[in-house]
Amino acid sequence: MDTEAFFEGMPFASLLGIEITECAEGRAEGRLVIREELSWNEDELMAHGGVTFTLADTVGGAALVSLVDQPVPTIDMRIDYLSAGTGDLYAEADVVRCGSDVGTVDVGVYAAEDDTLIADARGVYKTG
């Protein structure tokens, strides 16, 4: 499976503008350009929490797909928001465990402007 092409064809991720930029061997990276429609604040571009969550979930899933070569539905995701995302974002994900039934992935979401960690997440996905 061409993992990057798989995620490019995901309608919701495409709607938000999420791009998987790297995906191999249990690791993935992705980015998102923040625009007015994705902001929770009309005076300043600040990523809505749902946008940050979706970036983490999508990039986390991509990391696991790179190992199991099939879609991996999300079972659970926990996210800690550490600061507001006030500009473009990127995420880095690493598979912690890839089992026959479930896989676990750690994801960091960062502000592209200064590499500040703005959210820390752990996702659990169905692998079998």
| Helix/strand structural class | alpha+beta
Radius of gyration: 14 Å
Low-confidence stretches: none
- The spatial strand order of the largest sheet comes to 1-2-4-5-6-3
Number of helices in the DSSP assignment: 3
**Largest sheet entry:** 6 strands, antiparallel
Distance between the termini: 16 Å
Query: How many strands appear in the DSSP assignment?
Result: 6
**What is the 3D form?**
globular
* Helical proportion, percent range: 25-40%
Written account of the structure:
The chain is 25% helix and 39% strand. It contains 3 helices and 6 strands, in the order ααββαββββ. The protein has helices at 3-8, 11-16, 49-68, and strands at residues 19-24, 27-32, 74-81, 89-98, 102-111, 117-126. Strands 1-2-4-5-6-3 form a 6-stranded antiparallel sheet. It is globular. The two termini are 16 Å apart. The model has no long low-confidence stretch (mean pLDDT 92).
Task: Identify the notable features of this structure and list them briefly.
128 residues; alpha+beta; six-stranded antiparallel β-sheet; 6 strands; 25% helix
Ordered list of secondary-structure elements with their pairings:
Elements: H1 3-8, H2 11-16, E1 19-24, E2 27-32, H3 49-68, E3 74-81, E4 89-98, E5 102-111, E6 117-126
Antiparallel strand pairs: 1-2, 2-4, 3-6, 4-5, 5-6
